Amino acid sequence: MPFDDEDLPPASLNTASDDAPFDAEDGDQAQDFRLFTSLLASPGKQNQASSKAIRRGEKDFESHGTRAQESVLESSRSAMHEVLSYTRQHQPRNPFRGWYFPDRWADMPPESESTTDTATNKQSGDRPTKNHDSAQGLFARERIVALESDKGTMLSSTGRVITSAERFSPGRLKTWLLPEEALFLIERGTLDLWWPARGIEEILPTDEGQAESQANSEKLEDCELGVPLSLQAAYALFIGRDGERGKISLEKYQVYSNLRRSGYRVLRATPLPLQSSPTRTPRSLWQWLFSLLQKTSNPRYPEYGPLVRPGLYRSYVPIFEQLALVQRHKPTPLPPSEVPQPGDPFKIHFHIWKSTSSFIKTKPPPPDFQMAVVDARDSGIPTLEQLDSLLLSTPWDPPTNDEGKQGAGFVYKRLKHAWRNAILAVVDRGLISYMRFGEMAFGEELLYENTNTRPRGKRGGRAGRGRGGGRGRGRGRGK
Amino acid sequence: MADVENPAPGAPGPEAPEVLTTPRLFKQDKSSTKPQKIPLHQIYALPAPLRTFPLPSFYPNNPLSLFHVLWAWTSQALSPPRAEPSVIHQGHWSPETRSVHIRDPKSIRALWEQGFFGKGNYSRSEPNWLKREQSRQGQGHKRVSELLTVQRREERKMMKWDRARKEQEAILKTRLAEAWVAPVGPKELLALPNSLQDLLVLPVAGLANGHTTPDSLSHPTPPRAPISSTSPGVPPTNISTLSPPELAVNGDQGGETGKVPFPSLNDGHPFSPPETPAMKPASTSRDIVASMPKRRKSVRFSPTVESTTFQLGDPPSPHLGSSTNGKVPNGDMTNETRPLPQPAGAGPPNILDVPVAADGAAASSELVDREHLQLSPEEAFYLVFGLGALSVIDPASGKTMAAQDLFHLFRQLSYFPHSTTPLRPDDPFLVQYAVYHHFRSLGWVPRPGIKFGVDWLLYIGGPVFSHAEFAIMVLPAYTDSYWKSQGREPPRKSWQWLHSISRVQSHALKTMVIVYVDIPPPTQASDPSALLKRYTIREFIMKRWLSNRSRD
């Protein structure tokens, strides 16, 4: 395809929409197995499908009977074969053993769900105690798998050590996993799940009782302690309906494992401090007087007549001000105290961090994304109340203030940034579609006030975005 | 709106007559018609059909400008200009089409240029049927967006076709290179020609075992009809024919002789559009067919484009594809704006160089503008109720319709099936008009978005300046306690519905916005001001989130 003009758009003139071309593409591309082989290739072994052979952007839609094509195809095939025939082994050096104790923490208090609780806490200014802070996001009641050891990089964002129990209770100071974490580790081959045949005191002796139990555990063989469980058993134990203690719904687990496999850090959502202290700048007397003046001069709308009164106008601003009739939405940083708690499908379930940000699991930074998980078949698109309460439970994040920049690109950028954002993972029987919903406010951008937003001189607003070319070829997807 | 819109994202926004996108056009324009080029922002300076009279600005460092200000002020005070809106345009309510027609050409231009209201009934959006007709008949070089679109599509088609041709040539080249085997056996060596003379005499250059000799490769045989394809014993000669003309000839011949392994799509007709199974040059020769896998689809081409009009018996060319694609070639003249059939051999069509047709001068004298502007109910009501720049005449009585009559009529008509039940606060017209008025009053230019599967498209400034950035889908919301007590629920929409719309928008590089209109409980008030004040508009952006693109 020598004339394929679907090249990357040049550094785009339109700053607002520079991410748009990516959006048009599909997120899930077919894997190029030759990339994998280059990863797997050991130095000693001669690897015939080298990564040098990779040329992206060309795609044959049909075989044209040349040997060149066949050899390319064959090399790709053999690369795939090589990758797939790679033997996965469980590394024997770090045996991760987890024990299934579903009822160990059943009597712990459930995680506080109310957002306003913490919001008011923060707002009143008294810093929550350290203890409270670390209990945030612990979900001790839901933790059902105890790990014998807590080494390994996998645990940097997985599992929590339960410290809040009384001193000498068994299982304290051990890493405990949530069902989705345990299931993900099992699927990944990092964790062996065992069913305990003995009590928790014998299997996980506490530090203090270690001396006396040392002798006991020595003589207890593995087979006497319990039995290993299969992956199917783990699924049966951990997947349940929403709201069941110690279980997770299949949709949420699918979203969780998809995000983890893509490299994100995912934790169950905890109520966030919604915003910093309300920044209500005190208005000066002049501004107050001025607003009074504007209030009184607010025109009474003629019932049927033209909203714009006939007369002489010096600019378009008074004309458009008279047209403002339908109520506009003004996003406010503080939600009213009577905000309804988001109802179940449309509430934040997961907090997500990018892989690059530094991360401490006990004190995670503010999440990069907030996600709700909905079932595509059980729910329709949200109503206004559902969407509004979902977004009100996410942090206030207004567009960056680039005051004075009135070009169309800046207007688009501010509007698209939105004032609050949440991601909805729509799961349709295992297929996940992520959608970002953001609270917009077109009323914040009064286009009529500045004349610069109107593109001037430059015609064809999206020139230079690689739009003109032959994308009509359709990339052969449907063929 | 009968025109068939190409949904391919490569096509420009249908509402956006992008003038001057290709540099070539630019040059041409400069050389031929340089004097009358008015910048777009001067033509479309006014955002509404109302004029303003700003005072000249006063520069403190230039005392003379004060006099300028004073003079402007006093002149406006002494002889005030007419109160705006100074011109009230006349519209005619058309009950059949449920739109308001503007027939006065001045009003048509004014409403289009000052706020982009309505669409020409023969045009895609800008009412330019007359200009199009004139340029079609060769009167002057008028640049009309529809024609430019046609031309751009032609160019793109040519480009793609050229690309396909080059691909095929490359494939053929590799195939020939692979087919070549050095002659080593005694028989092959003996069969080699002894001199150049021999080579010319030799009727068949190939060898029995399916290989071609180097000589046959280096000296392509002159083009000829491949009679050889019908006789199985003859070695493949056309593998050595590199010249593209014969490729096309081969294909056609193969089709006619019925030797094509795949039946063409149009039954019984030997010629198929370029997309249909072809690649006959290779498939006609048996030996290569045996060595090659069967293929479903291929591209057939001819190196030159002879004409822009087609008889059914003509050889295929890239233009054939679209015109036979379910459309009568010259069927819909009004909207499709296909150039008139030109004399054969005119070369690739270039709308700007259309030669003056012989009968053009005769026809030009009687060319009358038959186009009118049609306003949707929302647009018409905004002009009447919001700006007061339009009065609508009832065709039955011939009198001007009052705003309340118009309001009632539009609300009544928005019910389907038509009913005479009392009007509800959530009738479709009111909901859509609230959204239309909301965005208009903020300075946006909303235009109907049916071609993109949404309710409205939002332009910043207008469709001539830039593509629409936002696509608006309107949904009602019933959050009031009255509706809760009534058990009123908004229509339940599935996720599939939302995804299908969002997929279209992302493909057309638009940002999808869901607009909820919060419906107030019913009241006694029936005047639009009091009613519309109670509606609240909430906008939500909706965009696909790609997990592998947002990771870092």
TrEMBL record, chain A:
Positions of the tRNA-splicing endonuclease subunit Sen54 N-terminal domain: 81-195
Bias-annotated ranges (Polar residues): 112-123
GO biological process: tRNA-type intron splice site recognition and cleavage
Biased composition (Basic and acidic residues): 55-67, 124-133
Stretch list, region Disordered: 1-74, 107-135, 451-479
Biased composition (Basic residues): 455-479
Any Pfam family matching the protein: tRNA_int_end_N2
InterPro entries given in the database record: tRNA_splic_suSen54, tRNA_splic_suSen54_N
Compositionally biased residues, Acidic residues: 20-29
Keywords, alphabetical: tRNA processing
Record-level GO cellular component terms: tRNA-intron endonuclease complex
Family the entry assigns: Belongs to the SEN54 family.
Protein name: tRNA-splicing endonuclease subunit Sen54 N-terminal domain-containing protein
Provenance organism: Xylaria hypoxylon
UniProtKB/TrEMBL annotation, chain B:
Transmembrane segment boundaries: none
Domain tRNA intron endonuclease catalytic: 429-518
Top-level EC class: lyase
Region (Disordered) residue spans: 1-34, 212-347
Highest rank taxon of the organism: Eukaryota
Alphabetical UniProt keywords: Lyase, tRNA processing
SUPFAM superfamilies given in the database record: tRNA-intron endonuclease catalytic domain-like
Reactions this protein catalyses: pretRNA = a 3'-half-tRNA molecule with a 5'-OH end + a 5'-half-tRNA molecule with a 2',3'-cyclic phosphate end + an intron with a 2',3'-cyclic phosphate and a 5'-hydroxyl terminus
Active-site positions on this chain: Y459, H467, K510
Gene Ontology molecular function, alphabetical: nucleic acid binding; tRNA-intron lyase activity
Tagged with keyword GTP-binding: no
UniProt keyword tRNA processing present: yes
Compositionally biased region (Polar residues): 227-243, 320-337
InterPro entries listed in its UniProt record: tRNA_endonuc-like_dom_sf, tRNA_intron_Endo_cat-like_sf, tRNA_intron_Endonuc_cat-like, tRNA_splic, tRNA_splic_SEN2
GO biological process: one example: tRNA-type intron splice site recognition and cleavage
Gene3D superfamilies listed in its UniProt record: 3.40.1350.10
GO CC annotations, alphabetized: cytoplasm; tRNA-intron endonuclease complex
EC number of this enzyme: 4.6.1.16
Homology family: Belongs to the tRNA-intron endonuclease family.
The protein, known as: tRNA-intron lyase
Native organism: Xylaria hypoxylon
